[in-house]
Amino acid sequence: MPTTLTQSPAAAVLDRLFTAAWQDDLRDHPGLDFDTATAQERADALHDVYMPVSPRGGELLYSLVRTSRPRTVVEFGTSYGISTLYLAAAVTDNGFGHVHTTELSAAKVAAAGANLAEAGLAGVVTILPGDALRTLAGVPGPVDLVLLDGWKDLCLPVLRLLEPRLRPGALVVADDTTFPGMAGYLAYVRAPGNGYVSVDFPVDDGMELSCWSPATAIQ
Q1: Each residue of 128-150: pLDDT tens digit?
Q2: How far apart are CA 86 and CA 14, in angstroms?
Q3: How far, in Å, CA of 182 to CA of 185, rounded?
Q4: d(Cα 121, Cα 8) in Å, to the nearest integer?
Q5: How many CB atoms lie under 10 A from the CB of residue 188?
Q6: What is the rounded distance in angstroms from the CA atom of residue 116 to the CA atom of residue 40?
Q7: First vs last C-alpha separation in the chain
Q8: Taking the mean position of all CA atoms in its chain, how far away is CA 14?
């Protein structure tokens, strides 16, 4: 069994996906108004856009999962499965654990499933198609690690949905924290009394690493 990400079959799949994702910078969707579009409308309009975690961010995710050894991982925002591949490779190399991930775009659900199968990692991942605020409601706890990488206005509602099932000491990772839409989320996890010990991690577009410490939460 592989012991590092570079030895995993996922490495070749990740290389292919990142090569394709870097072409997204050349694309434009002038007909999409993010201020008025629903989450489903955004997902459908951007079905061909990868929106990946950065390579360094992905390597951080892999290392965090290898170190924390979670049994239950929840991801908000599958897209083409790049971040999911890092999570799945890590739980596979740990020898236990399962990733529950969610995606609104039917096209991306199919593509992510194919990418995970190509990497030999489909068996440790469940892709939940549809609205995360509904699909993640059924994921059993305790949840050991969460990655929030979906629509930024939904990251805080998804976290609040999962909060009752977080294991004390659970790690919550939020991507793209330099985006304006993450301001409310950051204010919440950084506020004394909400139950998190939180720190910014300087990768592309920013990541916030938050440890759930319910003893510090104000009831």
Answers
A1: 999 999 999 999 999 999 999 98
A2: 9
A3: 5
A4: 10
A5: 17
A6: 23
A7: 45
A8: 15
